[in-house]
Design brief:
Helices cover about 55% and strands about 10% of the residues. The protein has a three-stranded antiparallel sheet with strand order 1-2-3, covered by helices on one side. A hairpin with a 5-residue loop joins β2 and β3. α1 runs antiparallel to α4.
Length: about 120
């Protein structure tokens, strides 16, 4: 939609940034439940069994969360660990952030090249 090369790169930067925000939101909400042990149990067993989480809740599951990189890690006393954030979320988040920076930098360079040089000042 942009009429200039710099504008097209700026639109690309905004698109990459939108993908990053959407990915961060979806990844951050993965495993979201009022009872975190339920999401851990469902991921560990591979099925959404309403009764399965009751035994696991009593097993002292520890849920550790990180903001960057996104992580919701369930750890059981026996050493079993399950990650609730999908495997595609962090690579896509990093790629889209890098894409936004590259596009923004290219937009600035294209905008600087498109400007006409200043005319020389009159020396009279």
């Amino acid at each position: 939609m942009a009429r200039s090369a710099g504008g097209a790169w700026a639109e690309g930067a905004w698109l990459c940034l939108a993908v990053a925000v959407l990915t961060y939101t979806l990844g951050g909400l993965s495993g979201f439940d009022t009872r975190p042990a339920r999401a851990c149990a469902e991921e560990r067993t591979g099925r959404a069994d309403p009764q399965a989480h009751r035994d696991i809740e009593q097993a002292d599951v520890v849920v550790t969360s990180e903001s960057f990189p996104l992580s919701h890690l369930c750890t059981w006393p026996d050493g079993t660990r399950v990650e609730l954030v999908p495997g595609w979320a962090n690579p896509l988040l990093i790629a889209s952030l890098v894409g936004a920076v590259v596009c923004a930098g290219t937009a600035v360079r294209a905008g600087a090249k498109a400007r006409p040089p200043h005319p020389p000042k009159d020396q009279s």
